[in-house]
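In response to the reviewer comment on reproducibility (Comment 2.3), we provide here a single inverse folding case reported in full, input and output, so that an independent group could reproduce the run without further information from us. The C-alpha cells appear first.
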C-alpha cells in the first residue's frame, strides 16, 4: 500500500441530534472515532515501512462551528486536529498526511440538499486531490476558493458571527 484514501462520514440529522444524544453520538462516532481507529492502524503500518500517504477527507465545515451543522462540523474539526497531530508525529518517518477540506461537493451524501446542483463537481475535486497527493501537500482546500473564504469566516468575531444566519 502506497496511498490510502479515506472518505468516511455522514452528515447526520442536526435537529434530531440536538434533542437526542444517541443521534449525536452516531454522527461523532462515524465522522471521528471510526476514522481515527483506522488511521491509527494505517499510520503505524506506514511508519514501519517509512513511506506512504494518508489522504483523508475532512471538511470546511470543521473550520468554524455553525448552528446549522455543528455536530457534523465538530466531528470534522476533531478529525482535522487529529490529522494535524498525526502529521506532526509521522512526517519524519517518511509518511505524508493530507487533510482534504472540500466545500460542498455533489455526491451521494449531498445530492438531496437544496442547491446541490451548484456544488463542486466530484470529478474536479478528485483531480485536485490526486494532484495534491502527487506533490505531498499537507492540506488541501478544494475547490481552491474555500481557503480564503474559510480564512475570513474563521476570523469573524464571535459577537458578529452569532448574528449571522449561517
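Designed residues, in position order:
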Amino acid at each position: 500500500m502506497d496511498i490510502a484514501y479515506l472518505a468516511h462520514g455522514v452528515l447526520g440529522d442536526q435537529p434530531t441530534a440536538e434533542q437526542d444524544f444517541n443521534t449525536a453520538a452516531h454522527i461523532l462516532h462515524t465522522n471521528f472515532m471510526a476514522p481515527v481507529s483506522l488511521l491509527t492502524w494505517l499510520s503505524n503500518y506506514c511508519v514501519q515501512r517509512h513511506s506512504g500517504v494518508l489522504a483523508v477527507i475532512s471538511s470546511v465545515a470543521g473550520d468554524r462551528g455553525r448552528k446549522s451543522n455543528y455536530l457534523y462540523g465538530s466531528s470534522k474539526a476533531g478529525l482535522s486536529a487529529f490529522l494535524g497531530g498525526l502529521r506532526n508525529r509521522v512526517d519524519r518517518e517518511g509518511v505524508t498526511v493530507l487533510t482534504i477540506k472540500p466545500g460542498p461537493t455533489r455526491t451521494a451524501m449531498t445530492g438531496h440538499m437544496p442547491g446541490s446542483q451548484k456544488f463542486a463537481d466530484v470529478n474536479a475535486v478528485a483531480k485536485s486531490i490526486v494532484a495534491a497527493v502527487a506533490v505531498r501537500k499537507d492540506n488541501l482546500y478544494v475547490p481552491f476558493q474555500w481557503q480564503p473564504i474559510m480564512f475570513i469566516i474563521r476570523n469573524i468575531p464571535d459577537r458578529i458571527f452569532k448574528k449571522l444566519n449561517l
